[in-house]
């Protein structure tokens, strides 16, 4: 190889090296831009998901309020006519000693000979957690409502939609079960049903 050929080869390698460096720099810039675009797209997706979750939560709350509103007239009738309740309060909010707020869909009570209180939870779709929620409210009743602690306490779980298995579980816990029929709630308990009295123990 001659000196000239060697110089040409070195020059060619230098030019190729320069081109490769420029292409690598361009690729890094494109990758950085692509990464920025992906990051921006992910942020937009996160924002859209949060907004959608908020909207779904709002719809669920509205449906829950609708269900509670649907239940109130027929539940008021059940509570007053079948249980003798004289005070019926929808959407009762109370704070426990730790400052945690709890909401009870309906709290009904009466004094005198009956001297009873009833907590009603209304659900559009009955789940296991709904049963646990009502049981917890009943167990904590004396602490949450010391002014009503001397009353016998019962629980009613009212649901628009509930599997037969969950209905049986509600009854097995000693809770009354109410289901909607022809846009009216009615109690669905067997003749031999024995409700659990939470404050008698």
Can you walk through the features of this model?
The protein has helices at residues 3-83, 128-139, 141-144, 164-172, and strands spanning 87-95, 101-110, 116-125, 152-161, 176-181, 184-187. The longest helix is centred in the first third of the chain and has 81 residues, at 3-83. It contains four helices and six strands, in the order H-E-E-E-H-H-E-H-E-E. The protein has a domain at 71-187: Trna Endonuclease, Chain: A, domain 1, CATH 3.40.1350. With 201 residues, the protein is α/β, with parallel strands linked by helices. Helix content is 53%, strand content 24%.
Summarize the structure.
The protein is an alpha/beta fold.
Beta strand count:
6
Helix percentage = 40-55%
Helix-strand topology string: HEEEHHEHEE
Q: What is the CATH level 1 assignment of the domain at 71-187?
A: Alpha Beta
Q: Segments where pLDDT lies below 50 for 5+ residues?
A: 58-68
Helical/strand content category: alpha/beta
Q: In the CATH classification, which architecture of the domain at 71-187 applies?
A: 3-Layer(aba) Sandwich
